[in-house]
Design goal:
Shape: globular
Strand order of the largest sheet: 1-2-3-4-6-8-11
Helix content: 40-55%
Order of helices and strands: EEEHEEHHEEHEEHHEHEHHHH
Strand content: 15-25%
Structural class: alpha/beta
Largest sheet: 7 strands, mixed
Length: about 270
């Protein structure tokens, strides 16, 4: 097991690597894990390093304290009333979210508490999400005169249009069961079962071919932005390239021979 950022009290987030799973834990519990500019920059830098680390097969994003993430750091934003500062902050946030989407590893959100605004955006951006029954989700910017426009990008690509507009326009929190119904998260469990459910999911992901997951993840997000004709053309090419990998040959042979495949990640 590899641990970085050992000064837990001062670190904005913690990183622990264990058997192919990298766990990033937001570590500003007193600030409800609000995403300051510095925290987003540091997270972006860390995830960019993980992107090219072939020893990391799965990434988990969790949080310390009662809240998962309260969104952007409003105190910091109000202390810097400048258009360029605001634009730069939201651009940094968008870059962080896009990195999560484009990195080859599956990214799983572990939500133990409230996820609001950019925190809800973070959940929606992760490829998979498991939540405790204590978790709640909201895009409440409308309550303070600030529509959650950047969180809307991820939210509207996860839930239906009417549900997204309800969350954005009314700003009310939804509980974990409702979030599951809307498609914002994948699974809801009791708080004491959260880590067990997470381990089952990460173990399942570790049992898949890394190159297959990477190619599939990239194709998924790419085809979302295309029309149906172009999406089929693109994914047909991706499947043809996937068929040329050693893991696909091994997986198909193993299926035919009724044995467990041995992945090499190529």
């Amino acid at each position: 097991m590899k641990t970085s950022l050992d000064n837990v009290e001062e670190a904005m987030f913690l990183r622990v690597d264990n058997s192919g799973v990298c766990t990033i834990t937001l570590n500003r519990p007193k600030a409800r894990n609000a995403l300051s500019l510095e925290m987003m920059q540091a997270l972006h830098q860390e995830l960019t390093k993980i992107d090219t680390d072939e020893s990391i097969r799965v990434v988990v994003i969790g949080a310390n304290g009662p809240a998962f993430c309260a969104g952007h750091d409003m105190r910091q934003l109000r202390a810097n009333p400048n258009f360029d500062y605001y634009k730069g902050t939201f651009s940094t946030s968008s870059s962080l979210m896009k990195t999560i989407m484009t990195m080859p590893q599956p990214v799983v959100a572990r939500i133990q508490g409230m996820a609001t605004a950019a925190g809800c955006q973070l959940v929606a951006t992760c490829d998979l999400a498991i939540a405790s029954t204590a978790a709640k989700f909201a895009t409440p910017g409308v309550h303070i005169g600030l529509f959650c426009s950047t969180p809307m990008v991820a939210l509207s690509r996860n839930v239906g249009r009417k549900a997204a507009m309800e969350m954005l326009m009314l700003g009310d929190a939804v509980d974990a069961e409702r979030a599951l119904e809307l498609g914002l998260i994948n699974k809801v469990v009791d708080p004491d079962e959260l880590d067990t459910a997470l381990r089952i999911m990460t173990d399942t992901l570790l049992g898949k071919s890394a190159i297959t997951l990477a190619m599939g993840k990239a194709a998924f997000y790419e085809q979302l932005e295309k029309g149906v004709v172009d999406a089929y053309a693109h994914t047909g090419e991706v499947m043809a390239r996937n068929m040329m990998t050693a893991d696909a040959a091994e997986g198909i042979d193993a299926f035919i021979q009724k044995r467990t495949p041995v992945w090499i990640g190529k």
